[in-house]
Amino acid sequence: MINNGYRVIKNTVSQKSIDSFFSSFLKVCKFYAPDFFKEKNYDGLDCAKFNRDIINLRKKNKLRFSSIYDTLRNANFIYNFYSSNSFDQIAAKFLNVNKDELCMRSPGFRIDVPFDKRNVYGWHQDSAYDKLNSIPSNGALVWCPLVSTNAKNGTIQLKPGSQIEENVSYHKSRGKKFITKQILVPNKFLKKYKTKSLAVKKKNCAVMHANVFHKSGENTSNKVRFTFVVRFNKFLTKDYFYYKKGQV
């Protein structure tokens, strides 16, 4: 499906790495919010009790939930998950370069609770947030769910073929406390492409060009959708920001 700007890669994530990640994630939750995570036994990210407690935390204590979220950005076990599952190799193969010719930027872990209105992205291009490559198809996004995703729990939606577009997005909002910044694709561009809801099973991932139009679906289930998002850019190209900066 690379001609449409994306691929689904099967069996790329090990269950061992998911279990290890959950063990470390749970430690953070219990340390930051022990009064919310009181159960002795949580058996993984699909666990109904764990989902209940993290949804309850976000609803009743935004500040502590935000602290957990922000802590995870730089936690070493997050980077261990990326490296152990070779996300850089997935992006390199997709972009047809050696993995040593890529930089990784803004790795993230998303916790998308049911019926969220504050942090769900509208239609956007990841390339619009950094513009490291002026040819935005020289970047790639790896989207990896830790639970199987479908229309009900708000799996990723995309516009196949939109990778041919340049950065066409505009600022809707610059974000504020507890609300995500939005740089959105104008409707006149969205109308040119059909929407695909991309169901991705656990242990699989999707990789797409950084300028493909995409957004999160609405999670209308009773559980959280947990996903990793990792972004890569080619830097041995003349359209790369720091190369151009050095030529001025």
Which helices and strands, and how do they pair?
Blueprint: E1 6-9, H1 15-32, H2 48-60, H3 62-74, H4 76-84, H5 87-95, E2 102-112, E3 139-145, E4 156-158, E5 170-173, E6 182-184, H6 187-190, E7 196-197, E8 205-209, E9 214-216, E10 225-234, H7 241-247
Antiparallel strand pairs: 1-8, 2-10, 3-8, 3-10, 4-7, 4-9, 5-6
Helix pairs in contact: 1-3, 1-4, 2-3
Describe this structure in words.
The chain has helices at 15-32, 48-60, 62-74, 76-84, 87-95, 187-190, 241-247; strands spanning 6-9, 102-112, 139-145, 156-158, 170-173, 182-184, 196-197, 205-209, 214-216, 225-234. It is an alpha+beta fold and 248 residues long. The strands form 3 sheets. It has a 5-stranded antiparallel β-sheet. A 3-stranded antiparallel β-sheet has the order 7-4-9, with no helix packed on it. It starts with 5 loop residues before the first strand and ends with a helix. The model has no long low-confidence stretch (mean pLDDT 91).
Question: How much of the sequence is in beta strands?
Answer: 15-25%
Q: Strands of the biggest beta sheet: in what spatial order?
A: 1-8-3-10-2
Q: What can be said about the biggest beta sheet?
A: 5 strands, antiparallel
The low-confidence runs, each spanning 5 or more residues with pLDDT under 50, are none
User: Got a strand count?
Assistant: 10
* Helical/strand content category: alpha+beta
